[in-house]
Amino acid sequence: MCGIITIYGNNASHWESDLNAMLDKLSHRGPDDQGTYVDSNIAMGQTRLSIMDVAGGKQPIFSEDGRKCIVCNGEIYNYPVLKDELRQHRFCTNSDTEVIIHLFEEEGEGSVSRLDGMFAFILYDGENILVARDPLGIKPLYYGWKDGCLFFASEFKVLDGVVDRVQEFPSGYYYSSKNGLVQYYFLPEVTDWEDDVHEITDRLHEILSKAVQKRWRSDVPLGCFLSGGIDSSLISAVSKQHFDHLDTFSVGLEGAAIDLEYARKASAFLGTEHHEYIYTKDEALEALPDVIYHLESFDPALVRSAIPCYFVSRLASDYVKVILTGEGADEVFAGYHYIKRLKNTEAVQDETVRILTGLHNMNLQRVDRATMAHSIEGRVPFLDIDFVET
User: Fold this and answer.
1) What structural domains and CATH numbers belong to the chain?
2) Cα–Cα distance between 292 and 81 in angstroms, integer?
3) Integer distance in angstroms from the first to the last C-alpha of the chain?
4) How far apart are CA 277 and CA 52, in angstroms?
5) 119 burial class (0-12, 13-18, 19+ CB within 10 angstroms)?
6) Given the DSSP bridges, would you call strands 322-324 and 377-379 parallel, antiparallel or unpaired?
7) φ, ψ (nearest 5 deg) of residue 323
């Protein structure tokens, strides 16, 4: 996980002296390392949180001929499969990011749709760029124009005051300097309603287990947020089946921390190494400016939910660098109470698609910013594409 910046255009090299100052605003996203590359058409940089190939995965990563390079924020979960298909290439790292550049060399822009993961990346081939964001917008990306150059960055704050207008790069799209903005991912339409509960639950159990297992791949310690609710308890339960030791984390507000009781019960049942923190109203008020700074939103509901996420991320950062969360389950399972008022299954389907496609500006933004504020990586198994489509 990391923070990325790219400036592309005829005057890009003029921004070289500003690149490090811009990267400093993303140091929380990647405190372990920093890398840059500049030529006449491009200035790109990355702050790195070392998760995969801790020693050798420094970015930007280059192709064998040295002409193409990439900066990427995210994780590509199917990179071992893709790497096996790309044996004709000489890999210089064990990083999942390197797969993207070699896959592009073989398949061009269409290679984006082969990636299974959460990502935002900029790939430069020596002349043109390819920019892409994952199907649901789990990883953030913003862009804007200034003096004939196109700017990209992981967070709004980097571009604010630099470009003429900051815009969000859309989820499920890629941009190429050859072909412009292209939507490469569409949620599938429902063709058939199924009603065999046993068959459905067996299939969901299998796909969720696979989704969780994909997200265990890490060269650093990993744990789970555990609130005691169904969503996070399921993720922790699947994880604990395969780990002798699993760290789980929960927090609560002093005097209103009933969730902690359920988290303790779930932890005791599962046998996890449980960590908790009770914060006060004064601590929440003191943290509020930092929460909003990182969250990059004044939305009241989002700010309110970001406060416990901020504290639990801070707690987890003392023990792990990767965390699995239960985010997204209410969207894919229509778990919100107001949905009960909808009249038919088609209305439920339409509403869940609506809130799922808007998640990048709500709960996913909260999880990304709160975890990254404390330099840990959040992963969301319920938003695995195979699981969501099922």
Assistant:
1) 2-183 (3.60.20.10), 197-389 (3.40.50.620)
2) 39
3) 27
4) 29
5) buried
6) parallel
7) -130, 135
Q: In what order do the strands lie in the sheet with 69-76?
A: 61-62, 69-76, 117-124, 129-133, 173-176, 180-183
Note if the pTM is more than 0.90: yes
CA separation for the pair 278, 285 (Å, rounded): 14
Number of Cβ within a 10 Å radius of residue 46: 29
- Report the distance separating Cα 316 and Cα 224, nearest Å: 9
Which residue has 């890398």 as its token pair?
35
Residue 29: CB partners within 8 Å, gap ≥ 6? 1, 2, 3, 47, 49, 73, 154, 155, 372, 375
| Unique residue bearing structure tokens 């815009």 | 167
* Segment 328-352, tens digit of pLDDT: 999 999 999 999 999 898 899 999 9
Residue among 276, 280, 281, 253 nearest 265 (CA):
276
Q: Can you read off the two tokens belonging to residue 372?
A: 């990254």
Nearest to 162 by CA among 174, 170, 153: 153
Q: In angstroms, rounded to a whole number, what is the distance separating the alpha carbons of residues 73 and 48?
A: 9
Q: Give the pLDDT confidence of 63-108 residue by residue, as tens digits.
A: 999 899 999 999 999 999 999 999 898 888 888 999 999 999 999 9
Q: Which of 2, 72, 149, 224 is catalytic?
A: 2
Which residues are 183's β-sheet partners? 173
Helix, strand, or coil here: 297?
Answer: coil
Q: 196 exposed, middle or buried (CB, 10 Å; 0-12, 13-18, 19+)?
A: exposed
CA angle 224, 229, 231 (to 5 degrees): 60
Class of residue 238 by CB neighbours under 10 A (exposed 0-12, middle 13-18, buried 19+): buried
Beta-strand relationship, 273-279 and 129-133 = unpaired
18 alpha carbon, distance to own chain's centre = 26
294's CB contacts (< 8 A; 6+ apart) are 28, 310, 369, 370, 372, 373
Cβ-in-10-Å burial (0-12, 13-18, 19+) of 287 comes to: middle
Q: Does the active-site annotation cover 92?
A: no
Question: What pLDDT is recorded for position 296?
Answer: 97
Closest C-alpha among 385, 389, 377 to residue 112 = 385
